[in-house]
Task: structure prediction
Amino acid sequence: MINRRLIHAPLSVVEYVVIHELVHLRHRNHSKKFWGVVNSILGDVKPDKQWLRLQGAHLLHRS
Result:
């Protein structure tokens, strides 16, 4: 499920979340195959994952 407040995140983070969820349609876990597909589409996702870790909670608490 994708939170509607994600629209306030940087575009690369939005793309990462959408691709992440779409890849879960094929791989229902976070296996090496899952991350291989994600990385083959987006390249290095570490900055986007880190942004979500640091800023993601703020998206949930916006009014």
Residues 4-60 form one domain.
